[in-house]
Amino acid sequence: MTLTPAPPKSIALMGNPGIPEALEVAQSVKALIQEHGVAATDGSLYDEELRAAVKSGAFDLLIALGGDGTMLRAGHLCAPADIPLLGINVGHFGFLVELKRDEWRNYLPRLLAGEFRYEERMMLSARCVRNGEKEAPFDVINDVVVARGQYVRPIEVEALLNGAHIASYVADGLIAATATGSTAYALAAGGPILPPEIRNILLLPVAPHLSVDRAVVFSEGSSLCIRVRTTHEAVVSVDGQQPVSLASGDCVEIVAHEKSLHMVRFQDPNYFYRNLTAYMEHNPLISIKKNQ
Predict the structure, then answer these.
(1) How far apart are CA 176 and CA 182, in angstroms?
(2) Nearest CA to 75 among 246, 263, 215?
(3) Could you tell me if residue 5 is inside a domain?
(4) What residues make up the domain containing 68?
(5) From CA 114, how far away is CA 112, in angstroms rounded?
(6) pLDDT digit string, tens, across residues 144-162
């Protein structure tokens, strides 16, 4: 579904309670929004009542206050309901976040006037298949990771494209990522950086041993299956969430999601590369550790 930018009439603000400033900034943002005559509701990212309201489509826009982790959690809430997402960075890392904590006062009037664009991010749908039985699907913004469990031993995984074998790997794991996820775990594993609006699926092994060590990019219409062959524990994790155990022979099916995540942007498309260069040259997490 393609959305057309328009002034929002009802906005939800969700702050990460693990970041003390997030809820405080949310209250200030809410006050400014209400001064412009627009309805706004603020609360914690884990407020069940507010979460239910977002899922039901009660708002035109969700503003998330935190870092990239906050953006992922908020995206899982709003994308299925076709609610756009804007991020204000009060966390550490901000590949996904549009506004810095000292910028929002300058940009909110533009938001409320409809002077912005949407960046449509492709999502994935993934589900486990055990003994031929398909389980409930997961919504994926960043990546699906099939990997070894607690034992420090590689697993064997087979990749199938549209039902046909394409490669087998002996590795710590295999990542299937969106363009959004190409700057997450896939980047750390040596994968390529994909333009944010590209609609492809990136497949990348993690620490392969005498196996194919190159990333492969598939078209949006591809149907991938990652099948596990192992005598010890393997797991699957979606967007860094709680891992789910896999047994030998289990398969994880991955396809493009019917929904997309619509992110509010004020800057031109080249912003992505400017931000990327800045983060690659100066990782804020490193500075934080040095100063502790």
Answers:
(1) 9
(2) 263
(3) no
(4) 10-116+266-291
(5) 6
(6) 999 998 888 999 999 999 9
133 & 214 share domain: yes
User: 93 and 202, same structural domain?
Assistant: no
Total domain count, the chain? 2
Among 266, 284, 233, 278, smallest CA distance to 119 is for 266
Residues 146 and 228: beta-carbon distance below 8 Å = yes
Gap between the Cα atoms of 199 and 219, Å rounded: 7
Count the neighbouring beta carbons within 10 Å of the beta carbon of residue 210. Answer: 9
CATH number at 76 reads: 3.40.50.10330
pTM of the model: 0.91
- What does the pLDDT read at residue 290? 41
- The reported pLDDT for the residue numbered 262 is 97
* 146/99 same-domain check: no
pLDDT of residue 273: 75
Angle, helices 68-78/48-55, rounded to nearest 10 degrees: 50
Q: Could you say which residues of the chain have pLDDT below 70?
A: 93, 277-292
- Give the catalytic positions in this structure: 68
Per-residue pLDDT at 2: 73
Give buried/exposed letters for 213-228 (b at 16+ CB in 10 A, else e): eebebbeeebebbbbb
In a domain, 273, yes or no: yes
